[in-house]
Amino acid sequence: MIKDATGFTLKIPGTLLSPAGPNARLSILIYHRVLPVPDPLFPSEVDSARFDLQMKQVSRIFTVIPLTEAVERLKSGTLPARAASITFDDGYADNAEIALPILKKHRIAATFFIATGYLNGGIMFNDSVIESIRMSSRDSIDLAPIGLAKFAIETIEQKRSAIENILSCLKYKPLEERQTLVDTVSGLAGVEPPRNLMMMDEQVRLLSDSGMEIGGHTINHPILASIDNKSAKDEIENGKRYLEELTGKPVRTFAYPNGKPETDYRAAHVDIVKQLGFDAAVSTAVGVAHKSSDLFQLPRFTPWDRSPLNFSLRLIGNLSKTRPRTALPDVTR
Question: Is the overall model pTM greater than 0.70, yes or no?
Answer without folding.
Answer: yes
